[in-house]
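Handout, page 2. Input:
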Amino acid sequence: MPRAHANGSHRRTGALVRRALGLAAFLPLASRAPAYTRLIFALLRDDRTPVSRKAVLAGAVGYLVLGRDIIPDEVPILGGLDDLVVVVLAVDLFLDGVPPELLHEKLDELGIERAAFEQDVAQIRRLMPRPVRRAIRRIPDALAAAGRAVQATGIGPRVRSWISREGSPA
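Output:
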């Protein structure tokens, strides 16, 4: 009987060590976070970055600012995890839609090593379940289609007129 207890304890220790090593693998990525933040801002300011991809980041920021979480922050550990997942998915989707030549241009301008960047992106993508990533990748096309549909209705000028009309509640 003591032997089973020892094996169970050994397994838990092994799992903790693997988890700690997995987290330690993200330390180099964390040290490059300021450079990656500058990269994202440079891409956001560039007119060649697709608007639908910029909208994905705006949606993630809106999610964080609104404070309406999928998992309430009061739930230990998981409460803050949903915010992290939303940010990671949004950034991944944003970067995935940036033309490669533009991304490489910005990486070079900012002195970010392409190999390290690609390794970091691949490492983060391994954390996200494939079905989730596949579903998330459909968002920009859906946003673009919704934008085209709204534009086709001609509602934009009518809404602007309604907003700018004197006495409008907007």
